[in-house]
Design a protein that fits this description.
Layout lengths: L2 H17 L2 E2 L6 E2 L7 E3 L10 E3 L5 E2 L2 H10 L15 H21 L3 H12 L5
Length: 129
């Protein structure tokens, strides 16, 4: 395996394991999605820390009230407008994809153009068209 192939493999592993997994900003536990309210609580019954954060931008919050205040006013939504605390499931899915895409794009900028070019088709399968 040549050097570039190794670098692509390492980068792809980082993308899949770290950047495409959304994590609680308090305990770093991976979560798949959130439903209902955009003021998210890391589920203690599933081994989480009970920390509150914004589902739109993943900003850690000091508690339930802070999370509701922030998430209700957050503009890191699919439209860039305040959507409120109870978005549709489709809006949540779009927001999560946007978060992941932003994280991946930022990471890709740190890589050489050769590595980026090789990664782009591999990454595309993780995002809707």
């Amino acid at each position: 395996m040549d050097q570039q192939t190794r670098e692509v493999a390492v980068a792809m592993k980082h993308i899949e394991n770290e950047l495409l997994n959304l994590r609680c900003p308090h305990c770093t536990r991976v979560f798949k999605d959130w439903l209902g309210c955009a003021a998210v609580c890391c589920s203690h019954d599933r081994g989480g820390c009970k920390g509150y954060f914004c589902g739109w931008c993943l900003k850690p919050c000091r508690g339930q009230k802070d999370a509701h205040d922030h998430a209700g006013a957050c503009r890191q939504t699919p439209t860039g407008d305040k959507v409120g605390l109870f978005p549709s499931d489709q809006t949540i899915m779009i927001a999560q994809e946007m978060l992941k895409r932003k994280r991946v794009d930022k990471y890709l900028q740190s890589l050489s153009s050769d590595i980026r070019q090789e990664l782009e088709p591999k990454i595309a399968r993780h995002f809707s068209k």
